[in-house]
Design a protein that fits this description.
- By secondary structure, the protein is of the alpha+beta class.
- It has two domains: 74 residues; 206 residues, Beta-Lactamase (2-Layer Sandwich).
- Helices cover 59% and strands 13% of the residues.
- Strands 3-2-1-6-5-4 form a six-stranded antiparallel β-sheet, with helices on both faces.
- Helix 2 runs antiparallel to helix 3.
- The longest helix is centred in the first third of the chain and has 66 residues.
- The protein is elongated.
- It starts with a helix and ends with a helix.
């Protein structure tokens, strides 16, 4: 009984607790003043009754104040812990991106760069970053989260009718069955068969990201409206219920290209089995975190694409 009550109390928003604390403090201060002026006008019997009620009220108010104070301290500690995890992970993540980027450049200058080294290096830094992302979202949402990078198998402009996508790397905490599915693919995965990616890339869409708190409900809503949520993963709802997908991209004008659209290399996908992980009310915060990481990933994957192309052309020349 007490455990259930405690769990319910822990779900009370910190802002509401702060309001109650201020209100209770005001009541505690005002009540004795009111009581002092009221009790002087009463007879002995009324005074005794009033004093009894007054004492009970003070005890209840004092208990409320104590509990509110205890929960305020608890939430402040939680907030400090969340800030520490997020700041630490962002620092390690960005430092690793920087170091790996310049390690690859130096290895290329030394004439030791190979496809194997390049791929292993990039996969390693991305995997580590995905693990950090999962920790950031776990701290921020309180729910278990997994992540992956989906790489577009296309050179130049992406044709939505034929473009395919593959899982480049996944976070360490990803379910084994999802990894097995990646490894046992016998046919290509088309972007057009996945609403998450297609809706972002489609010229007719106004979405720059895909965000759903409850995908099952979203899929049902799509059916009601005469459309369909497409997902090429069989029984996808057994692996995740909520998701965030942002493109790993940059505006073409940054690359001195005349096109007004974006150069999209891949997608950062973050998901959870909990429908409480990506709340609609926290959409802006969750998207900003994902976009910040995707911006760094573009630099690493752009370098990967450039050097991989060079190495592949060299191999073809010698073959």
């Amino acid at each position: 009984m007490f455990d259930k009550l405690n769990n319910k109390l822990e779900k009370i928003p910190a802002g509401f607790i702060n309001f109650l604390t201020i209100f209770s403090s005001a009541v505690t201060i005002i009540t004795p003043l009111i009581g002092f002026f009221t009790i002087r006008k009463m007879n002995l019997e009324e005074k005794n009754l009033f004093i009894a009620i007054y004492i009970v009220t003070l005890i209840i108010t004092g208990s409320m104040l104590f509990n509110m104070y205890r929960y305020m301290i608890k939430y402040r500690k939680i907030l400090v812990g969340v800030k520490f995890i997020i700041s630490e992970k962002f620092f390690y993540m960005n430092r690793q991106f920087r170091n790996s980027y310049f390690d690859i450049i130096q290895t290329r200058k030394d004439g030791k760069l190979s496809v194997e080294y390049l791929t292993t290096k990039v996969e390693g830094v991305l995997k580590s970053s995905l693990d950090d992302i999962c920790e950031i979202y776990r701290a921020f949402t309180g729910q278990k989260v997994s992540a992956c990078v989906k790489y577009i198998d296309s050179v130049g402009s992406v044709k939505l009718s034929t473009a395919t996508i593959r899982t480049f790397v996944r976070s360490t905490n990803t379910a084994i069955k999802r990894c097995e599915f990646d490894n046992n693919l016998t046919k290509p995965i088309y972007i057009k068969d996945n609403s998450d990616f297609y809706d972002i890339l489609s010229p007719n869409s106004d979405r720059s990201y895909f965000y759903q708190q409850n995908l099952v409900e979203y899929a049902k809503e799509c059916e009601k409206q005469g459309s369909r949520y497409r997902n090429s993963t069989p029984d996808w709802y057994l692996y995740y219920q909520g998701t965030i997908v942002v493109p790993i991209s940059i505006a073409n004008k940054r690359l001195n290209r005349k096109k007004s659209c974006y150069d999209v290399l891949a997608f950062l996908c973050i998901d959870s089995m909990s429908t409480e992980a990506f709340l609609k009310s926290e959409e802006n915060y969750n998207i900003n975190i994902a976009r910040a990481v995707a911006a760094q990933m573009y630099i690493m994957l752009s370098q990967y694409r450039q050097y991989l192309k060079e190495l592949t052309e060299v191999r073809k020349h010698y073959d």
